[in-house]
Design brief:
With about 240 residues, this protein is of the alpha+beta class. About 30% of the residues lie in helices and about 10% in strands. The chain has helices spanning about 1-10, 15-60, 75-80; strands at about 105-110, 115-120, 135, 170-175, 205-210, 215-220. The longest helix has about 50 residues, at about 15-60. The chain is globular.
Amino acid sequence: MNATLKLDKAFTLVEMLVMMAVIGILAGLLLPALNAAKGNARRTTCLDNLKQINAGIRMYCDDASDVAPGSKVPWILYKERIKDYVGLKGSSSASDRIFACPADTFHYYDTQTNGSLFFTNAPLHENKRYDYTSYWFNGFNLHATNNDRGQSWLGIGGLKLSSVKEPSRTLLVAEAPAFFPFSWHEPATPPEVPPGEWPSFNDAKDMASFVDGHVSYIKIYFEYAMAPFYNPPAGYDYKLSDD
């Protein structure tokens, strides 16, 4: 009698297959929502980081006669100038969480020899060469060289912030991919390109902060090589200089 009751309560093979199919469907429906929530959380953390860094740069400028950071490579070394203003002491390291975007898990880098762009499966903010930061200052205008089209670098390095004509549209500091551009938040597989050419990630989306202090998730225009060589056309919510 007891054995019969146990058999009556057992799942049949068909019922097990149906249950597994239902679980698979539910998982398929929930996974995009979970991924979206994870992405939103990363962008929220990134937004908070950029707000603090933006405020730190502005405090630095207040103490420097309103002049934006300037040095040999200000897009990276600005961090050394403003660390005290965001509560960091001592040498830079990968533990400087305010400078680490949580979506920064890979990056591309320029060989600086033939202009090619290479992928590396490692966070930018863990790299000493980039002073352990995911975020770059819009100071490329202080770079001495032009590209092979004779274009000079754009930016606001060494300028008075009060001289910027459109502070709500001009970048102050943004995720490093905004200047290449590619995206940590919505990554895409690069197309095959000939040696010496860069893959096009036009309209890649990145977190960026502006001279007026606000932070936005914006699309970046790609024309040729790195974005700091040109301002975007109409339809984009940012610019790199008043040129």
